[in-house]
């Protein structure tokens, strides 16, 4: 489904932005890039900034007009730094846009369109769009670099995609450290409690102090291994305490 | 509150990444940049890529170690491409991280720490952190450019901030086109219905067809002005219809 999502760049001036866009796309699982009348492409600078995403550059299509780039799309979202007066449906939040795009992308191609670095999209190009989206930003300085805007919207699309049950996306996890059983944890608490008294730390047997320290260790959720290390530490202290 | 959030870059190799980071920060309202032992700074390339955010570069602090950069912070989130085996509390999702950071930033400095382009953070540097976060990405190619990672996490922090009632953030809106009153809309519907019959389009008076087309115009939510244009169009057609 991410394969039906097309990133369209219109008349990009800096080839470096094309390369950085390709990289931003690939990190978010997007591979379908279309360039409308780029100033300089192919270009060494694009290749350099694409890093490991040169395959996205190589498969990019170059066309002469935006109409050509999106004619088969069922949804065309124009990204702009500020709202235009043409009242297209507008997404205030990129995450709302992404949910809509992911829904439509099940069925047919969908495009996210980005304009020129300085002047964005023309009114004629906005007319090719079905929706607009802006990235909420600092009102005093809200113009993101082109490839950064692509990165954010691609990230939101990826996020909407992975939140779907059928995406099968799994988080990278380190090998899960097994938690201890309640019995093992109980042994630790008993050991700790005993040493709190034996060491002279607890002068009053029913002080809240013991509860608070026990709560700290509970909250830390030690793994089985960590608990075993703690027990070892307690035993090392214990060896120096007077017998009771 | 965004001012208590610090972006820390550790031993950045490419000065361009420092500049692009400054720009990414400023678009998201962050201004507090600390550089730990950058390879090349200040540098023309940093200034060039900072675009309108050179003020962030100028106020950046340069320090010799990560400990120095974060010693007064109450929360230090290390951004890494993959989880380390050191079991720090980990945010699977940047938005969860951002909510936590925004909460803590009310009270005291909080840092987001980014490592070297190639090797990330060392284990000693991870030990300076209280949390880790990764940006979920393409498992086949998940290493974002450093400044792109900053852009995404800064965007999420800004998002968590603006969702708070007290942020006072308002979306840019074009001048609101006034909606028509129900009476005005009713006149339009009556006009349209009349012409559907007069033109011979509706052959059966109670067909669902009229409902469906009326529903389309309702859904379009025409402004007062647009409704007036539609009425004008209907009148232009009407002038050519046989009198009834």
From TrEMBL, chains A, B:
EC category: transferase
Keyword Methyltransferase recorded: yes
Biological-process GO terms, alphabetical: tRNA nucleoside ribose methylation
Domain tRNA/rRNA methyltransferase SpoU type: 5-155
Keyword Cytoplasm set for record: yes
GO cellular component, as recorded: cytosol
Documented EC number(s): 2.1.1.200
Compartments in which it is found: Cytoplasm
Record keywords: Cytoplasm, Methyltransferase, S-adenosyl-L-methionine, Transferase, tRNA processing
InterPro entries: Alpha/beta_knot_MTases, RNA_MeTrfase_TrmJ/LasT, SpoU_MeTrfase, tRNA_m1G_MTases_N
Transmembrane annotation, as ranges: none
Molecular function, one GO term: tRNA (cytidine(32)/uridine(32)-2'-O)-methyltransferase activity
Reactions catalysed according to its record: uridine(32) in tRNA + S-adenosyl-L-methionine = 2'-O-methyluridine(32) in tRNA + S-adenosyl-L-homocysteine + H(+); cytidine(32) in tRNA + S-adenosyl-L-methionine = 2'-O-methylcytidine(32) in tRNA + S-adenosyl-L-homocysteine + H(+)
Function: Catalyzes the formation of 2'O-methylated cytidine (Cm32) or 2'O-methylated uridine (Um32) at position 32 in tRNA.
Family: Belongs to the class IV-like SAM-binding methyltransferase superfamily. RNA methyltransferase TrmH family.
NCBIfam families to which the protein is assigned, alphabetical: rRNA_methyl_1 (TIGR00050)
Assembly behavior: Homodimer.
This protein's name: tRNA (cytidine/uridine-2'-O-)-methyltransferase TrmJ
Native organism: Vreelandella songnenensis
């Amino acid at each position: 489904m991410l394969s039906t999502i097309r990133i369209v760049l219109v008349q990009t001036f800096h080839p470096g932005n094309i390369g950085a866009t390709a990289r931003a796309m690939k990190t978010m699982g997007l591979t379908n890039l279309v360039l409308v009348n780029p100033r300089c492409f192919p270009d060494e600078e694009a290749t350099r900034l694409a890093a490991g995403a040169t395959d996205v550059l190589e498969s990019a299509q170059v066309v002469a007009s935006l109409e050509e780039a999106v004619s088969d799309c069922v949804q065309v979202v124009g990204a702009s730094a500020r709202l235009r007066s043409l009242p297209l449906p507008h997404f205030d939040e990129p995450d709302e846009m992404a949910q809509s795009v992911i829904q439509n992308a099940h069925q047919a191609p969908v495009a996210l369109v980005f304009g020129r670095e300085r002047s964005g999209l023309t009114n004629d190009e906005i007319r090719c769009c079905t929706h607009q989206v802006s990235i909420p930003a600092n009102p005093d300085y809200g113009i993101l670099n082109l490839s950064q805007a692509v990165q954010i919207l691609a990230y939101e699309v990826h996020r909407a995609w992975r939140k779907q049950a059928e995406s099968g996306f799994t988080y990278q996890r380190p090998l899960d450290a097994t938690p201890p059983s309640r019995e093992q944890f109980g042994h630790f608490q008993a050991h700790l409690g005993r040493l709190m008294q034996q060491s002279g730390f607890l002068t009053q047997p029913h002080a809240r102090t013991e509860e608070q320290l026990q709560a700290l260790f509970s909250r830390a959720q030690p793994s089985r291994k960590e608990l075993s290390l703690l027990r070892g530490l307690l035993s090392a202290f214990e060896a120096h305490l007077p017998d009771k």
